[in-house]
Amino acid sequence: HTGFSDDRVTAFALTSGNIWLGTRNGLVRHDFNKNIWRTYHQAHHLTDNRINDLVATLDFLYVATDAGVSRVLLRSVGSDTMRIRSVKQGSLGTVTVYDLARQSNLIWMGTEYGIYVYDADHDSGGFYKGAYGPSNRATYAVSVYDNEVWFGTEEGVAAFDVQTREWLTGPGRLYRTDAAIYRILATEAAVWVATDKGLLKYDRDGERWVAFAVEDGLPDNRVYALFADGDYLWLGTPAGLTRFYWNSPHRID
Questions:
Q1: DSSP assignment letter at 113
Q2: Which of 137, 159, 192, 242 could form a disulfide with 168 if both were Cys (CB 3.0 to 4.6 A apart)?
Q3: Are 209 and 202 in contact (CB under 8 A)?
Q4: Minimal CA–CA distance to 30: which of 14, 45, 44, 7?
Q5: How many Å apart are CA 220 and CA 206, to the nearest integer?
Q6: DSSP letter at 134?
Q7: Under DSSP, is residue 65 helix (H, G, I), strand (E, B) or coil?
Q8: How far apart are the C-alpha atoms of 15 and 210, rounded to whole Å?
Q9: Which H helix or E strand runs over 178?
Q10: What distance in Å separates the CA atoms of residue 198 and residue 179, rounded to the nearest whole number?
Q11: What is the longest distance spanned by two Cα atoms in the chain?
Q12: What's the predicted TM-score (pTM) here?
């Protein structure tokens, strides 16, 4: 399609009248009403063309890139003065941001230097600094469920309770793994972790971790994407898309 400059899609987001695609060479917008595609680059004030994730709020589209975060003012989309600006609060600058997750007014970011939290209502933010949690470890994946924020880091998995302001203890805390973590997805029943060595599941009821690999039916041990669909989990791998009936009454993990 004209206006679609790269097929290496890394993220999707929906806003009123538009679907947005993050790619490795720009931000792509499809206007449903006009049925047109357009790609935005650094020439349009993106911080970087290499996009890792997208998150939409009522007013903005946040764009995580290899050199910081941009935000698109949604009410300006489609006009001649469409506004894209950098988020630079709290030394975020041109840090590589791998993943975004929204929790009400907060946007949690996984970056090369650890966890960054941005308050969208007050346009303020900063890096997490504390004695507990991943501290300044590279954080590649973030997922929010209720009051919990789960992080996939270079050392494993950690989770923070925003309401109590405490890091979760027990088996779920900093599960050590030498696998590279690509995505994390926290749900009511389980926490799913996509890695280069298969799929990890944290069973909340059983308080234990379970690993799934090619031997269990995965088409490839490299899992890059996760999507929860009720009793099913969709997995994106280099060998194709797989649907996992994780909640089958006959399953014994």
A1: T
A2: 159
A3: yes
A4: 14
A5: 27
A6: -
A7: strand
A8: 36
A9: none
A10: 8
A11: 57
A12: 0.92
